[in-house]
Structures are given as structure tokens and as C-alpha cells.
Amino acid sequence: MNRKSLIEREVSKLKSESKGRVYNTILSDLVMVQMAGDFDAFLESLPSEENPGSEKPFARANEIIKETRKKVTTKNLFPSIVEKTIEAQFGDKHAALRELGQNSRDAYECFEKDKPILFDVSKEDNYMVLKVRDYGSGMSLKDVVKDLLIPYNSGKEFDLTKIGEHGIGWYSIVDLAELVKVVTKPRGSEKAT
Fold it and tell me: Is the dihedral of CA 41, 44, 47, 51 positive or negative?
């Protein structure tokens, strides 16, 4: 199975498991929306527990991306930014394990003494699967987009109890994985994102 069909199969499986509440987009589109000044509207368009959205919960988010594409004049700039600031920055597959561990540790509150992090490696079909699990505070969908997926954004930058602060370490995973799945559930929430 090639990379594209693997990704399509996994996205389809995720959508089925979550009753369609999976959003996938190109990272350079998120960078474009942020740099064009449409990021707040994009974040507000994402469904949340308080505002689950309609039958098509991501329709407005997709509209914002399309509208932003129409108004920007340098369409090749955003993929170039992603390539130069993220893809070219990493090269050590082991760095991804360190970064994932640090992010998992940072998910815990500073007062928590036990901070278990589980790394599990298994084989599914012809692919190796790495799962990293923590029991920290979790993230909402908006937090995932804003603080995990947008380069150089971090919800930890002024928290001295956290390891990460620059908002790019998570991207070391691009050296390790063809497909990345983030499952998170904010503390106190019943629904995973």
C-alpha cells in the first residue's frame, strides 16, 4: 500500500470512528490562514463541546481556507515556509521520540508528581506504529490547531515548569512518520478530539 492510500484509509477509518468529526488539511493552509489574519475566525469555526456545529462541522473552516486562498497573492510562500522552517530543520529520527516525550511530560500540571508516559511500538499491516500516551490535561480541537499545528505557536512559552516553548519540536515527527494521528481529550471532557 502506498503512502497516499494509507493516509486515505486512516482518515476514512478515523472519520468513521468519530462519526465524521475528523478534520484534515494541509499544514501550509493553516500557516496561510494565520499569516493572512484569518486565524481567529478559523479557530472560531471549529466545532467544540459548547458548539458542536452542524452535520458538516468543518464546512465554515473549509470556506475560510478557500476565501483566504483567493485573497493571498503569494500562494507558493506558505508551502515554502513549512518546508524551510519545519521539514528542513529536523533530520534525526530519534529527536521525534524525545520531543514526543517532552510534549507528553508538559501535558501534566506542575504539581503532579507521577507523570507516566507510555511508548508502544507495534506492527500493523506493513507499517510500524508508534503510540505515545500520557494522562495529562489534554487539548481541545482549537488548542491542537493553535498550539500544536501552527509553527512557532506554543501554549507553553511563558510557563517555566514546561520543557517546550518554541512550538516546533512536535514537527520532528515528520522525519519518523508518514501518518500522524493526534487523539486528545481535555480533562473533564467526555469526548476525544
Answer: negative
Cα angle vertex 191, ends 110, 103, to 5°? 35
Residue 120 burial class via C-beta count within 10 angstroms: exposed 0-12, middle 13-18, buried 19 and up: exposed
Cell, residue 190: 467526555
Helices (H), the chain: 3-17, 27-35, 39-45, 59-71, 77-82, 93-106, 141-143
Residues paired with residue 120 on neighbouring β-strands, in sequence order: 131
- pLDDT tens, position by position, 116-141: 888 888 888 877 788 888 888 888 88
State how far the Cα of 72 lies from the Cα of 83, in Å rounded to an integer.
Answer: 19
Q: Which amino acid is at 27?
A: L
The per-residue pLDDT for range 140-157, each reduced to its tens digit, is 888 888 777 777 666 555
Residue 6 has pLDDT above 70, yes or no: no
Domain coordinates in residue numbering, the chain: 3-175
Residue 42 has pLDDT above 70, yes or no: yes
Cell numbers standing for residue 77: 510562500
Torsions phi, psi for 167 (to 5 deg): 80, 25
